[in-house]
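Ops channel
N.P.: pipeline sanity check, posting one input/output pair.
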């Protein structure tokens, strides 16, 4: 009987290629939900986040697959999600065989792929971005932005600084790291097979999401070759089927790669009873960075086109809807910086015992009504990389460590809220708020200030730590197969 039941099981493998780690999740779809069968996380150990070694990411990928080898035999569908905006180039005909060699040997050189230029890369100066944006015409989507670390901007910079880059390494295609991974899993060996979903295409920069096509005039002005760019597919479409390699079974359906953030929204707002999304929901996530997202209709998008702030982006979503995202580069990374700074001060004062984040939060809660204010943008923002942070309104009685921690957390919330366009702010802050991310779940100060910004504080629903795995991007990736009937790539 057990053998028969296993034959009937159809497991889904979700993969999240993050900035610092790879997450794997195997789920078994059930009526009204999913059962988590296996979960594994593997860190890269990368020191640089602006540019990352694809070889190291692939080695980590192979290690993760080996850790869940027993569960892979029953996998029939795979969805890869991960860090958005970044770009990697590769030689399509050599991709699979080179990856097999890396899988067998664990090392080598002369790989047919470039490094990954990530969303954190800062090679594009504000002057360079202004030059790129000057080529935008009326066909450029006003809701699709260009910033340093975005695929089109990175491609334009590489072309300008190294015109023979593509020919020198025989690269004939490109995509996000998720697109490279789906091409690898499917054994794609021609540039025409490389595909990118509409959400990730929009995250690269100016893109005609209505017509699902790249802006030819804009690309020509930037001297980006059209034939190298991936084919744009609808999110949820099938990119192909797996080849038998790396311990994976043959013929499992592989969906077009997706971004981690939209998959997080899927996980938070998914309604299993209708295989659709809960109505009137805003999601707030504080992890390394911070995001507010809400699902919007075409009517709402049209009404706000003249009211788009620099930090707010709009991307296509499921069921002919859109997702509006206020995305800040300032989040848990700023709090981690402050913790390190406080401990550096303690060392300067010859104090041996380091302070912990929980102690900082407790100090901040004791000063949550502080008059000290903080602009937390020490790492800049995508729309203004030159932004700096600051403390202000300093008085003799408000500049303790607790005051600084409280002001920093309040500043993080205020900074994120300001990114929401005025026309949507009341809606975003008045409907049900689902809070996710380690930064929010484990930081009472952030929750306090977030509740203070809401029209109805009781609407805030923080994900329980025991259920945290079900509100992650990788879990959302496993749900994508249940949202719509996927369209085949052939």
């Amino acid at each position: 009987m057990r053998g028969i039941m296993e034959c009937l099981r159809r497991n889904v493998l979700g993969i999240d290629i993050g900035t610092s780690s790879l997450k794997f999740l195997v789920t078994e779809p059930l009526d009204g939900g999913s059962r988590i069968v296996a979960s594994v996380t593997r860190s890269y150990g990368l020191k640089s986040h602006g540019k990352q070694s694809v070889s190291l990411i692939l080695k980590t990928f192979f290690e993760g697959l080996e850790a869940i080898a027993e569960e892979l035999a029953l996998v029939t569908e795979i969805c890869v999600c991960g860090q958005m905006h970044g770009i990697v180039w590769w030689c399509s005909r050599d991709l699979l065989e080179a990856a097999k060699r890396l899988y067998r040997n664990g090392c080598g050189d002369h790989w047919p792929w470039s490094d990954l230029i990530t969303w954190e890369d800062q090679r594009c100066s504000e002057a360079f971005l202004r030059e790129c944006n000057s080529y935008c015409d009326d066909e450029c989507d006003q809701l699709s932005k260009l910033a340093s670390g975005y695929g089109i901007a990175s491609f334009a910079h590489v072309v300008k600084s190294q015109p023979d880059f593509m020919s020198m390494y025989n690269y004939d295609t490109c995509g996000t790291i998720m697109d490279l991974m789906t091409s690898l899993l499917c054994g794609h060996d021609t540039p025409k097979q490389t595909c990118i979903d509409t959400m990730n295409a929009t995250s690269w920069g100016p893109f005609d999401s209505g017509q699902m096509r790249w802006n030819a005039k804009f690309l020509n002005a930037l001297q980006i070759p059209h034939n190298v760019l991936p084919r744009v597919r609808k999110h949820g479409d099938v990119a192909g089927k797996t080849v038998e390699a790396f311990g994976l079974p043959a013929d499992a359906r592989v969906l077009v790669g997706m971004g981690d953030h939209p998959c997080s929204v899927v996980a938070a707002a998914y309604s299993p009873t209708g295989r659709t999304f809960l109505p009137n929901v805003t999601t707030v996530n504080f992890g390394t960075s911070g995001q507010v997202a809400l699902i919007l209709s075409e009517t709402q998008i049209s009404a706000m086109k003249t009211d788009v702030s620099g930090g707010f982006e709009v991307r296509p979503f499921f069921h002919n809807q859109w997702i509006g995202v206020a995305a800040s580069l300032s989040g848990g990374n700023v709090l981690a910086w402050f913790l390190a700074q406080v401990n550096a001060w303690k060392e300067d004062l010859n104090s041996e015992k380091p302070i912990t984040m929980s102690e900082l939060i407790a100090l901040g809660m004791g000063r949550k009504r502080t008059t000290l204010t903080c602009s937390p943008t020490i790492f800049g923002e995508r729309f203004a990389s030159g932004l700096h942070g600051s403390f202000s309104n300093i008085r003799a009685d408000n500049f303790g460590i607790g005051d600084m921690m409280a002001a920093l957390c309040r500043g993080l919330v205020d900074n994120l809220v300001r990114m929401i366009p005025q026309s949507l702010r009341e809606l975003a802050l008045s409907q049900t708020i689902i809070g996710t991310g380690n930064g929010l779940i484990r930081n009472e100060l952030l929750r306090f200030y977030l509740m203070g910004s809401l029209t109805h504080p009781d609407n805030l629903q923080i994900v329980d730590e025991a259920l945290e795995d079900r509100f992650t991007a990788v879990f959302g990736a496993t749900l994508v197969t249940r949202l719509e009937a996927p369209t085949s790539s052939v």
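N.P.: looks fine end to end. The chain has 19 helices and 25 strands.
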